[in-house]
Design a protein that fits this description.
Binding site for substrate: 253, 275, 366, 424, 444-445
Largest sheet: 8 strands, parallel, barrel
Structural class: alpha/beta
Active site: 307 (for ompdecase activity), 309 (for ompdecase activity), 312 (for ompdecase activity)
Number of domains: 2
Number of strands: 16
Helix content: 40-55%
Number of helices: 18
Shape: elongated
Pfam families: OMPdecase, Pribosyltran
CATH architecture of the largest domain: Alpha-Beta Barrel
Keywords: Decarboxylase, Glycosyltransferase, Lyase, Multifunctional enzyme, Pyrimidine biosynthesis, Transferase
CATH class of the largest domain: Alpha Beta
Pathway: Pyrimidine metabolism; UMP biosynthesis via de novo pathway; UMP from orotate: step 1/2; Pyrimidine metabolism; UMP biosynthesis via de novo pathway; UMP from orotate: step 2/2
Length: 474
């Protein structure tokens, strides 16, 4: 294609009609909605000239936007040939995201060579809700890659652009659906009444931009889950959540007893749990730390959550949990455990626990390049479900276990930063809850190292609670 940008767009729109990538009539969509317009860019694979024209238009858009990136990645499957054409033309490296990781060989879900921190430009064919782009972004971010921009051939103008931008992804459309309709009407390629019906459809029919639209599924209220909770620790936690109207857990990672107790007292009114790393304390003395932590937790109705991340054979974790200088099983309501050792690690912890103790399995981490792939998450989900007498949920970035019986704690939450330069990746509480399925958000430095900790905890608590109410329809 040659000529100015407007000439290129005009010809591309004609090609979209010529190759029947757009059709007008009456079409029942996947959602059940009847639409007067239907887009199908997949036909481009059968028409090399059309595919080339698409790739050139996308390339022109990325150059006009002055985007800088290390890799291209097409959303599977239609955008893959488009990204491939751009890669071969510009000599820009490409990554390929699989729908599922291979069960053999390298078991990669992302094919291609990259380094943690590399920036990826996502390519998509059509955006309606934006959920497909978000799904690809999540996979890339889990591999330690960075995504801030996406290019789409056609924006249907039904809310997806704003939805993506709220989640930190700038969307750059080559064409808007209204442009296509206007151009075809001006050139008498479609009737005026057809154009009007199509415009009205775009204006009035919007996709569901709800948790279900991005794979989270139905959300139950904390009140209902508290009533049906089977484990006493789950029941206690959910009652606190519902009573205090907060689903915030603050991670207090400090090195002295004084700091730990001072910060805990400040955030106590706004949290359902406080997460600790007591082995970081340089001056730990059980009698000076634990009784005061317990007093604060009882006075302000929150749980004590020791993020020990047990990850050894059963007998070793039994001794670590029930003994040593920390005596964790005596005071921690919840502890974390890695799934790597297998079910034996759960059995070991159980042997040192009482009904007042519970654990959660670390199924996903918020750090760049974490090795928690799909097969690991499935194994963790199985461990959760088969040990419901002790395991009450997961630490994860997605809904690893579907049943509302289990609680999802999501770390890496901060509404001001996207990362810390050391591998940590952040999302705001609204994204953690609506898109990633979080029940309880874990916030650390966003509260403890940024202004007044009590006020910061209040702000995070209010935002997280509002997001959960919205997700449950309350």
């Amino acid at each position: 294609m040659a000529g100015s940008g407007s000439d290129l767009k005009a010809q591309l729109i004609r090609d979209i009609l010529k190759y029947e990538a757009v059709k007008f009539g009456s079409f029942t969509l996947k959602s059940g909605v009847v639409s007067p317009i239907y887009m199908d860019i997949r036909v481009c694979v059968s028409h090399p000239k059309f595919l080339t024209a698409i790739a050139e238009a996308v390339e022109q858009t990325l150059k006009a936007a002055n985007l800088r990136f290390d890799h291209l990645c097409g959303v599977p499957y239609t955008a893959l040939p488009i990204a491939t054409c751009i890669s071969t033309k510009t000599h820009q490296p490409m990554l390929m995201r699989r729908k599922e990781a291979k069960a053999y060989g390298t078991k990669q879900i992302i094919e291609g060579k990259y380094r943690a921190g590399d920036k990826v430009l996502v390519i998509e064919d059509i955006v309606t809700s934006g959920s497909s782009i978000l799904e690809t972004v999540k996979v890339l971010e889990n591999a330690g890659l960075t995504v801030t921009d996406a290019i789409v051939l056609i924006d249907r103008e039904q809310g997806g652009k704003g939805y993506l931008e709220e989640r930190g992804i700038n969307l750059h459309p080559v064409l808007k659906l209204s442009e296509i309709i206007d151009r075809l009407e001006v050139e008498n390629l479609i009737q005026a009444d057809v154009a009007q019906r199509s415009r009205e459809f775009i204006r009035t029919v919007k996709p569901s931009l709800t948790p279900a639209a991005v794979g989270v599924g139905e959300r139950a209220s904390f009140e209902g889950r508290a009533r049906s909770a089977k484990h006493p620790v789950s029941a206690k936690l959910l009652k606190f959540v519902n009573k205090k109207k907060t689903n915030l857990c603050v991670a207090i990672d400090v090195e002295t007893t004084a700091e730990l107790l001072e910060l805990t007292s400040k955030v106590a009114p706004y949290v359902c749990a406080v997460k600790t790393h007591v082995d970081q304390l340089s001056d730990f003395v059980y009698e000076k730390v634990i009784p005061e932590l317990k007093r604060l937790s009882e006075e302000h109705s929150f749980l004590l959550f020791e993020d020990r991340k047990f990850g050894d054979i059963g007998e070793t974790v039994r001794a670590q949990y029930g003994g040593g200088v920390f005596k964790i099983s005596e005071w921690a309501d919840i502890v974390t455990v890695h799934g790597v050792p297998g079910a034996g690690v759960i059995q070991g912890l159980k042997s040192a626990a009482s009904e007042k103790n519970a654990c959660i399995i670390v199924a996903e981490m918020s750090s760049a390049g974490a090795l928690t792939d799909d097969s690991y998450k499935k194994a963790c989900a199985s461990m959760v479900e088969s040990n419901a007498d002790f395991v009450i949920g997961t630490v994860s970035q997605s809904r690893v276990v579907k049943s509302p019986e289990f609680i999802q704690f999501t770390p890496g939450v901060n509404f001001e930063l996207s990362g810390d330069g050391k591998g940590q990746q952040y999302v705001p509480p609204e994204v953690a809850i609506s898109d990633r399925g979080a029940d309880i958000v874990i916030v650390g430095r966003g509260v403890t190292r940024n202004g007044d900790p009590g006020d910061r905890a209040r702000i995070y608590s209010e935002r997280a609670w509002e997001a959960y109410e919205k997700a449950t329809g309350n």
